[in-house]
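thought: fold this chain, then report.
action: predict
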Amino acid sequence: MGLSKYIKKKVLITIKTYPLPSPFHREIVCTGGIEENGGFIRLYPISFRYLDWWRRYRKYDWIEVECEKSNDPRKESYKPNQQSIRIIGYIPTKRGNWDERAKHVLPNLSKSIEELKEQQKIEKTSMGIIRPKEIEDLVVEKDEEDWPDRWKKVFKQLNLIGPNQKPLDKIPFKFSYKFTCDDERCRGHKMMISDWEVGACYLNVLKSGSSPEEAAQKVRQQFFDRICSPKRDTYFYVGTLLIHPQTWIVVGLFYPKKKNFPQNKQKRFL
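observation:
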């Protein structure tokens, strides 16, 4: 027998994006995290809602997974063996204290989007975490209300040959952060956020009887008024898109209370 092509890795899950349709996997989630020995890793694709329930990880779960370097040219990208995923631990925020999570996350802190773009040119960096100097707004914009017909046909065909699953909800809004970096080169950014929790927040509010517009504003209240409030030190997990490798988006948030990370600790963690 030949040698296995997979490598077993231990990963702290920090990023999970909202599912997108896929003609081969029904739907896919981009998952990111920190390896045990430090550094970002991207696990893609994962058909998260089709995993066995005991493999469905949450953020800040430690998992073990077998994976191989994918054809994706981005250096952090690995293709996982989804059937090998095993949850082996979890890092809670004890009484609101994020210190244990920060020990794994913040050593990867970059100064700015501008710095990450430089690293991308040199070493194909495509993931990172930054602390914005100022978060100006969370912009809510209307999007298509339903999936295009071509995706509906794909969903129908795939359900005929595989296990059924609740249809993937289309979020009819786009949410984008406007912010500046602590970098003299920064001229401001507007970046879409694709965090799973944004979509889940919208759908949960919608199910409570709110209108789509009310649900969208609840998302803004949660992800701007609360998570980006002056009481919190808010960091953005960011990454690039496979089909648009020069485009960076916000893929997750890290938001401890400021009392845990005073202003004098804004410098890069080394």
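thought: worth noting. The helical segments are 99-105, 113-123, 149-161, 196-207, 212-226.
final: tokens above.
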